[in-house]
């Protein structure tokens, strides 16, 4: 086993005791003083929650649920770190991607197992022969385009909905296509519908906009220093070019046997190239990009979730929300940049948040192949104020220190 491999492994051994220690620390997002019984949940929901193996709420669940379910329901703009259980803090929603909507649908189904309610999935690839059937379900979860189609086709009556949730709310109100569609859906709802926004990140500018569209919201906000998680250790590796990045990835592949990994590329093309190279090298990898059909996307993510492939090569389409417990390593094959070529701190945080779910240990490794990408990473490091250490794969002394 290479030294690099040893170091990564030593950082990945998580125990339930680790998570219990975090739960006792008031600064941890997993900390709570209340039990689920104290949160105003219906008996049947409580049964569903316990059935999912949740014993105690996280901080966001403990804070948000009583406010959402109270006698006087409030609107809310909520921020909580990735992997801290925001999904269990709401019940129906619009999601930015097909995979995330499907995942939220599954969580809702599990949680509502003992309730007499039905859930409709409004995503492409899900409709099969039922395209024009009227919807009788009480909860609708989907992507904005399909929901708008359903409204246009009068497949359900939006004025009957009591709660409207935007998951990954910052992208839902900030990227142009999503914003227009989300606002259009919102216009069809009754004025009294509760309006709930959830995300791990809100740029200041986006938070201002959120406040301007949500009437009298309760705001749950993190400080910048709280946004990144201490259970995710961040590293970078200097490489000469994309070939050397590929070799570094092949080296790390062995570590993944104690978990799974997600590799993020900047473009569909580079993701395709990398997946092809890995396959040629004999590694079993999954590839998921926006170029796949909805059916293919669901197939690929389901296979990956069930552990059939250890490594998923993807783009930002999987950067947010996807919850696969066994992901122990996230690799930024390319440092994330926004449409203007500026380091994208929010996307960075979401990407690395695919590991370290609910207090588990995780590792994020950034591949840096030029001074420019190094400087971009440095500005992300500065933004969150959390160290990103260099791994020099052939320096044993330095590696020993990193393993602490
Ligand atoms: N109270 C709880 N006790 C134990 N596990 C929990 C609890 N709440 C949520 N989880 C688990 O934690 C994981 C992360 O939850 P979830 O996907 O809701 O996070 P999130 O905050 O929405 O993350 P992201 O910002 O990445 O979308 C899930 O696997 C979920 O089953």
From TrEMBL:
Compartments, as annotated in UniProt: Cytoplasm; Nucleus
Entry EC number(s): 3.6.4.13
Reactions catalysed: ATP + H2O = ADP + phosphate + H(+)
SUPFAM superfamilies on file: P-loop containing nucleoside triphosphate hydrolases
GO cellular component terms attached to this protein's record: cytoplasmic stress granule; nucleus
Organism: Trichoplax adhaerens
DEAD-box RNA helicase Q domain ranges (all copies): 34-62
GO BP annotations, alphabetical order: poly(A)+ mRNA export from nucleus
PROSITE patterns referenced in this protein's UniProt entry, alphabetically: HELICASE_ATP_BIND_1 (PS51192), HELICASE_CTER (PS51194), Q_MOTIF (PS51195)
Helicase ATP-binding domain boundaries: 91-220
Motif (Q motif): 34-62
Keywords on record: ATP-binding, Cytoplasm, Helicase, Hydrolase, Nucleotide-binding, Nucleus, RNA-binding
Signal peptide: none
GO molecular function, one term: hydrolase activity
Protein name: RNA helicase
Keyword Endoplasmic reticulum: no
Predominant subcellular localization, coarse grouping: cytoplasm
Keyword Cytoplasm: yes
Helicase C-terminal domain location: 231-403
Enzyme type, top EC level: hydrolase
């Amino acid at each position: 086993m290479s030294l690099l491999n040893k170091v990564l492994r030593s950082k990945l051994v998580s125990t339930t005791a680790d998570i219990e220690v975090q739960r006792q620390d008031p600064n941890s997002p997993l900390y709570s003083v209340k039990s689920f019984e104290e949160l105003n949940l219906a008996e049947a929901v409580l049964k569903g929650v316990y059935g999912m193996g949740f014993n105690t709420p996280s901080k966001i669940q403990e804070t948000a649920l009583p406010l959402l379910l109270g006698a006087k329901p409030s609107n809310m703009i909520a921020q909580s770190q990735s992997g801290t259980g925001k999904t269990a803090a709401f019940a129906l929603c619009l999601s930015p991607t097909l995979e995330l909507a499907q995942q939220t649908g599954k969580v809702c189904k599990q949680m509502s197992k003992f309730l007499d309610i039905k859930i409709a999935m409004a995503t492409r690839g899900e409709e099969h022969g039922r395209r024009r059937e009227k919807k009788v379900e009480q909860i609708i979860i989907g992507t904005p385009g399909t929901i708008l189609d359903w409204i246009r086709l009068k497949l359900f009556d939006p004025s009957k909905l009591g709660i409207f949730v935007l998951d990954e709310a910052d992208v839902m109100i900030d990227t142009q296509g999503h914003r227009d569609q989300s606002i259009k859906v919102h216009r069809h709802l009754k004025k009294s519908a509760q309006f709930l926004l959830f995300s791990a990140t809100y740029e200041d500018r986006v938070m201002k906009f959120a406040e301007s569209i949500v009437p009298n919201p309760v705001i749950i906000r993190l400080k910048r220093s709280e946004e990144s998680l201490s259970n995710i250790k961040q590293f970078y590796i200097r490489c000469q070019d994309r070939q050397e990045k590929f070799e570094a990835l092949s080296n790390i592949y062995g570590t993944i046997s104690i978990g799974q990994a997600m590799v993020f590329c900047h473009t569909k093309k580079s993701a395709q190239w990398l997946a092809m190279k890995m396959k040629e090298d004999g590694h079993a990898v999954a590839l998921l990009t926006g170029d796949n059909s909805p059916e293919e996307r669901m197939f690929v993510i389901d296979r990956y979730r069930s552990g059939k492939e250890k490594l998923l090569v993807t783009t930002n389409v999987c950067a947010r929300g996807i919850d696969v417990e066994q992901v122990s390593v996230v690799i930024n094959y390319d440092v994330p940049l926004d449409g203007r070529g500026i380091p994208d701190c929010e996307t960075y945080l979401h990407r690395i948040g695919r590991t370290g779910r609910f207090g588990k240990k995780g590792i994020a490794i950034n591949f840096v192949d030029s001074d420019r990408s190094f400087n971009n990473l440095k500005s992300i490091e500065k933004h969150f104020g959390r160290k990103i250490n260099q791994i020099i794969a052939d320096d044993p002394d330095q590696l020993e220190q990193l393993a602490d």
